[in-house]
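Why do we bother with holo predictions? Because pocket geometry can differ from the apo form. Keep that in mind while you read this record for 2-phosphoglycolic acid.
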Amino acid sequence: MEVIVLPTAADVARLAADVIERLLTTSPDPVLGLATGSTPEPLYQELIRRHREEGLSFAHARAFTLDEYVGLPAGHPERYAAVIRRGLTDHLDLKPEAVQGPDGSSADLLGECTRYEQSIVDAGGVDVQITGIGSDGHIAFNEPGSSLASITRLKTLNALTRADNSRFFSSAADVPRHVLTQGLGTILRSGHLLLLATGGSKADAAARAVEGPLTASCPASIVQLHPHATVLLDQAAGAALEHGEYYAEVWANRPVWQPL
Ligand code: PGA
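The structure, written out:
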């Protein structure tokens, strides 16, 4: 696990974009893992800018989203399938059919979870998985108490997450209670886990994920178990880290030949 604390959220976005760009330019068949939420928005803006201004191509890539609300009607703007199109993939040369997510309106939700998990396996797995972190320590929609070995399944959101996400809806009561989400075991199989957190409201969760115990009570603590995890924080999100000085020393002395 590598923890990198950068001055601003824009710096976090640029460094994360560098990781994606390297994958896109070195792999003939890159598979991206995309997250929704506010945290990756500056990263997605940067990827769109590089596509438009620098010709960064996604035409050969495929992508999987992490999670989806259950029961939002077709055409609802907060379905994550719509959010990721609006915020990223519509603005790239990624083929629409190359972007997949779990279908939260399936008549067979349990079957849909199995199908989605298998589709990631069939694609050869996710190469770089982008995630945020919830203020309760969740990753994707794996709430505290999630099995560390879990795969894609139905989960029930807790009150804190529904309150956090109420900013996208008319009220907390309108935030769906149920979701489909990749499991912690699914995320652990990704080739490179890139966890992003920005802003002081994530400082406590980020510190628990990175420096607390590996525990289902803080699902994002799987960054400690993943064989190749990079945690990118801005100053505010890194403020509660105990070993911040050491992480800064590692970053300042990183060998130039060592990729992220
Ligand atoms: P946010 O959500 O990026 O909107 O803060 C993160 C998450 O819930 O994983």
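The CA atoms of residues 142 and 175 lie 16 Å apart.
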